[in-house]
Amino acid sequence: MKSGRTFTLSVRIAICACVVACVPAASAVLPNAEPVYFYVFARIDDHVNREMSEERLRRTLDLVERLRSKRRSDGLSCTILVSGAMAGALAEWNASDGLLDRLRSMKRDGAIEIGYFGANEPTYTSRPRPGYRNRLGPDDWWTVRSKAAQSILMDGRDPLTGRVIPGRAGGVKAVADVFGEPSYIGGFTWNVGGDSEFVPYIRKLSPHAILPGLPMPNPSLQIHGYGASVEGVAAAMSPAANTAPELFWQDGFVRLSETSAPSLVVAKGDAGPEALSKMLESLDRKRPHIVQVEIGRQDAHLRPQYLTAPIYPPLRVAYDHPDHPKLPEYAFRPREEIEAAYQKDEATLQWVRERFLPQNGGSSFVSGGSLGASVVPDDVSVSRAVLLQLTTDLLARWGTDTYPPYWVQSNGRYFSLAQVFLLLAEALGEWRRTGAIPESAPLGFVFGPRDLSDDPGPNIGTVTVAQVAEAAAGIAVELNDQSASPAPHNAVPSSVVVGGIRVNAAQFLRLMADAASNCVSGRELRVRLCNMFSPAGEMYPRTISRRDEGQVWTLRPAELKSRD
Predict the structure, then answer these.
(1) What does the H/E/C string look like for 149-192?
(2) Cβ atoms of 88 and 48 closer than 8 Å
(3) HSE of 478 in the Cβ direction (CA atoms, 13 Å)?
């Protein structure tokens, strides 16, 4: 791609200042409006069209350095998302372009973070897929999915054919080897919904990474009512002013959604500050929001006819035509259009910094690291007082409904159904051994059920507190077993036999809460019909089988630390 004419720094600054000045001031500040946090990122994963990727990366780094040189107090940084193949290419190119050295230096300085994006890893057709479940049981089906997940996250591949190269690291493993732990990991699955089979490997590679939440609407996914589902889940995950609709816990990781309402999408920096300003005006400011802003976009380099399938993204052309993988010269926009896009990137970030942040107290830029640090972490254990409050809250929220609640709360802290299941099993197991609810119960990591049935279970019969405690004691041992295995032990069981009656996980959770509320051995508890999906679980959009949606038992709001 020809370098063409470039604008001088003074001209670029003048144009950006003019664009910012022409944008209306930030929308009027609402009374008690909550902050908006801006997560800036660039996704650079084309390891084939080198000149374009090098320019995008260099121009993005230049912009970040230029803006940070003026002021660092607002926390501006940029997360650079690369694939495993791109990390390998950067290591190979470094001797001639020095970009890897620059990335590492800016990462040490806090100007950037490195994340992983694997949707375009070599190649689309060779990407491991587990196939169909057919008659496989939950354990065998998890094992098949887990094997595919491990390959996606760790196997090195030929950069054009996707053939696995034994002994070479790829995916997240390659990025971690080159840059250290990624701060964000995404694009590892094309499914919407659960990704639990990936979690054990991600916990080993980067246990503190931010993972994707709900993606922007995509008609090709054909999810009926997607927008309403997103809004429903976002509302369930943001019950108070210290929670954001775009941020929540799932499977032990903080998740960041691209959208939480029809008006909120990933902002394109090259669309200019006017587009971002208009989107911000539409936000309900009763809750804080995390708005993602993409800069250095690949699309800004490509002519319109190269922005649609079957020749988009450019890596699709490379994988389909490995004998001549690079885009032709005429695929790229004229130089002046490319320059204009980078100027708008800069104008957008300047508008946020100069206009929006000063008028919206508490708002700031955030990185993956600062975002993760702003979330209240899990306690390692839960006191008896908190456990009893959780029990009371669970029963109160459940009431006479057949659906379990979204989550459970104690003193402003939120706990998932899976966490409460674990805590009650531990507490009742200890009561069975010692005759008393323990002073504290450990809060370990636990998956939701591996097989989420639609069977609401029996609606007749009684069991005793002692029988519930006996079943709970055996389950607690399994739930605290985090040893490596094809299918994890630390997953809520899909069903439990208690007092000779087989009940589903939701029924047993309710029985444990009933038992813990008044631990008298012979007291009888009625078995009640219960659905396995909470209303939030029912709303959660998915492209996979409902049976594999056990992660909905791990959903809970992410509380943000006080800004005081």
Answers:
(1) HHHHHHEEECCCCCCEEEEEECHHHHHHHHHCCCCEEECCCCCC
(2) no
(3) 16
Q: Indicate whether 28 pLDDT > 90.
A: no
Q: Dig out the tokens for 447 from the structure.
A: 């998956």
Structure tokens at 28: 């009027």
Which residue from 46, 56, 82, 292 is spatially nearest to 187, judged by alpha carbons? 82
What is the per-residue pLDDT for 23? 56
Residue-wise DSSP of 485-539: -SS-SSB--SEEEETTEEEEHHHHHHHHHHHHHS--TT-EEE-----SS-HHHHH
Length of the chain: 564
Q: Where are the domains of the chain?
A: 9-374, 381-532
Beta strands in 381-464 (DSSP E): 381-383, 408-410, 413-415, 440-442, 462-464
Identify the burial level of 476 via C-beta atoms within 10 angstroms of its C-beta, where 0-12 means exposed, 13-18 middle and 19 or more buried: buried
Residues 197 and 189: their CA atoms lie apart, in Å, by: 11
| Residue 396 DSSP SS3 | helix
Q: How many CB atoms lie within 10 A of CB 427?
A: 28
Q: Which of 210, 196, 189, 195 is nearest to 257 (CA)?
A: 210
Measured CA to CA in angstroms, residue 325 lies from 34, 61, 160, 394, 528 at distances of: 48, 27, 8, 57, 61
Tokens of 125: 């057709």
Phi, psi of 206 (to 5 degrees): -160, 80
Quick: pLDDT tens for 348-365. 999 999 999 999 999 999
- Summarize pLDDT for 417-432 with one digit per residue, the tens: 999 999 999 999 999 9
Nearest to 397 by CA among 513, 258, 501: 513
CA distance 63 to 60: 5
- For CA atoms 268, 274, 275, 279, the dihedral sign is positive
Residue 32 identity: N
Kindly state the DSSP code that residue 49 receives in the 8-state scheme: S
Of all residues in the chain, the percent with pLDDT exceeding 90 is 88
- Cβ pair 482, 489 in contact under 8 A: yes
Q: Which of 330, 289, 354, 348 is nearest to 25 (CA)?
A: 354
Just give the CATH number of 9-374. Answer: 3.20.20
